[in-house]
Every structure is written in structure tokens, then in C-alpha cells.
Amino acid sequence: MWHKTGMIVHERDPYNAETSREGLLAPITGAASFYVRNHGPVPDVDERTWSLAVGGLVESPARLTLAELTENFAHHEVVATLQCAGNRRSGFLPVEDIPGEDPWGPGATSTARWTGARLGDVLRSAGLRDGAAHVEFEAPDVSDLADPPQRYGGSVPLGKALADEVLLAWAMDGDPLPRVHGGPVRVVVPGWIGARSVKWVERITVRTDPSANWFQATSYRLLPPETDPDSAGPGDGISLGPVALNCDILTPEPGERVSPGPVRVRGYAHAGEDRGVARVDVSGDGGATWVQADLAEAASAWAWRHWQASLELGTPGRRTLLARAWDTTGACQPESAGALWNPKGYANNSWARVQVRVGA
Ligand code: MTE
Ligand code: MO
């Protein structure tokens, strides 16, 4: 049984659950609180018979057992935050409804210390052939959300696949990878949308083109707002890869009553791929004035940064707390969800907004 306690459950079957605001406060989330995103039933994978096929544009196609993967390749550890493209989708709903998608809040993201072999080491040992440009991952879980129903899969460009931080991970926080998180082995693609970190991976194919799997070619793409998502076809919209700069407020919680006087505001911020979080600003007066938050050290270049600030909220009444992060390129999160709304509700990285009541 893989259902967890203390989670905000969006669906029981397939199991989809987000981490609570409280659970998001820890630098390393822990398997018990780590968000779960599934597009089909969790497959019954036996680690004794599991194997990983490596093929396509390689010199020597291979099939690796778990023992071969763990014994023949160097072990590496990376602390990395995974973030679903649908994280903070609920912030889009006041703009316009998003039928058919779950209203994930700030908890479709979590951080773990992953251990595994470098995908690049496995690819280099198989030998890359001319024309190699994308690396496809396939898993055995079948999703009937896909049209037609199919196994889950996706791909990343070769350059990312060969990067040091990308792992074929068999452990999470030092323990064998739990089944619900892709055990025995999953791909971990730090800095990219969670969808590319394929769980229960059993086939890797080196290709000239991105994967034709529905979750790569048709889903997880940013469509223009006027598009009907049901009639969008392969290649429509913008393919999502590196995650957008984002942040949210974790305490106080929405609707919380806070006493007048200084209020401690805490949250997380995350910048994808080669960017880092450089600054977080917090406001208690609708953005008229801002306070710079104190940033905690990141556990790695691939992990989120927690932050905290103290705000004077003044007289009793309703207040909206705002937070916005800046990254190491000098970019800031966009102000409004309205400008970002898209029919599948992906990549909402607008300013964090939490309404509280100041009262005795
Ligand atoms: N891999 C498989 N095989 N099946 C899936 O449904 N979901 C993806 C990705 N890998 C998925 C998958 C998505 S969209 C996300 S955000 C992450 O897994 C979530 O990983 P987690 O459930 O370990 O948090
Ligand atoms: Mo996701």
C-alpha cells in the first residue's frame, strides 16, 4: 500500500497527492511527505526481474539488471527538487476554470537526496552513434488519459541527458526508492519539469527526435489560451522542459488569523536548470512596499531555497501577503496569473498570494 497520511489527495486512483504547506517547510521533504503524481496505476514491478534496455542510436545495445546497474557504474548523489508543471495550478482558477485537471496548490514539488548511476555513464558505455540527439524513457504504467491509452514516457535532449546531475536513481534519502516514486529505478532530471523524471523506467532509446509518446508530444505543452486542449495534436504549443522560476508562501496559511504586530512569513523558491534563486521580496500591503526575505542556503544547485521575512501587518482586517522571487539572471516572477493562464494549467509562476486576517 502506497497511500500516505497528511497529504492533500487529489485522486485516489490513480493516486495523486500533494504535500501540505507544513510538509513543504523541511529542506529535504522525506518520502512520507513527498508529492505523488501518477497518470495510471502504480505498476507491479519486481526488482528481481526488472531490467533496463538501452537501445536506439547506440553502438552496443544492452540490457541491465539492477545488480548490473548498481555494480558496474559509479554511484552519485544529487539533492534535487522535483516540480510538476501543474504546481500552483489552483492560482489559475480565479482567472478561468481548467476542466479535467486537478487544482494542485503549492505542494506539487518536493526535494530528496537521490542516489544512482549517471544516465550519461550508461549512455557512454553503450556508445553513442551519429545522429543521437534525444534520449527517450519508457515505463510500464499504462495511462488511459493518453489518446490512445499508452505507457508513460518522455524524452530529454542529449545535452541534458549527458549532464552530471541526471541520474538513474535507485535510492531516495538513502533508502531503496519506494515503489510509488518509481522503484526500483527512476530517471531524475533536476531542473526540468517532473514529467521528464520517468518512474519505473525500463527502456532507454537514443533517437534523432523527441519521443512521440503522448506525454511528450501532446501533453505537458503550453497551449495558447484560446486553444481547445482536446483537439490539440502532437507538436502543438510549447514543449515544457526547464522549470520556470517560482515561489510560494507556506506560513501563514490561507485564511489564517494572525495577531497584529510582526508576522513571520516563510516559503520556498526554486529556479530551474542553470539558474539560482537570488532574492525573494515579500509584501503585506499589496505591493506598495517590499521587504527582502532571508534566504536559507540551498542544499545543492538543484534544490529549492527556503526563505523567511518579518512583516508588520498593522491594523485589523483582511490582508493579502505577496511574495516574488528573482533569479540569477535578474528575472522576476510575473505579477499576474491572468497573463499566464493556459488551457492545461501549466507553469503558473505568478507572484504568491495568501490572504490572512489580522485580528486579536
Ligand atoms: N513516470 C511514470 N512512469 N508515470 C507517471 O505518471 N509522472 C511524472 C513523473 N514520472 C509519471 C512519471 C510526473 S508528471 C511527475 S511531476 C513526477 O513523475 C512526479 O514524481 P513523484 O510521483 O515521485 O513525485
Ligand atoms: Mo508533473
From TrEMBL:
Signal sequence range: none
Highest taxon, organism lineage: Bacteria
Domain Moybdenum cofactor oxidoreductase dimerisation: from-to ranges: 245-358
SUPFAM superfamilies, alphabetized: E set domains (SSF81296), Oxidoreductase molybdopterin-binding domain (SSF56524)
Keywords assigned: Metal-binding, Molybdenum, Oxidoreductase
Gene Ontology MF terms: heme binding; molybdenum ion binding; molybdopterin cofactor binding; sulfite oxidase activity
Positions of the Oxidoreductase molybdopterin-binding domain: 39-214
Entry's Gene Ontology BP terms: sulfur compound metabolic process
InterPro entries linked to this entry: Ig_E-set, MoCF_OxRdtse_dimer, Mopterin_OxRdtase_euk, OxRdtase_Mopterin-bd_dom, OxRdtase_Mopterin-bd_sf
Named cofactor requirement(s): Mo-molybdopterin
Gene3D superfamilies referenced in this protein's UniProt entry, alphabetically: 2.60.40.650, Oxidoreductase, molybdopterin-binding domain
Protein name: Sulfite oxidase
Organism: Kocuria tytonicola
Lineage summary: Bacteria, Bacillati, Actinomycetota, Actinomycetes, Micrococcales
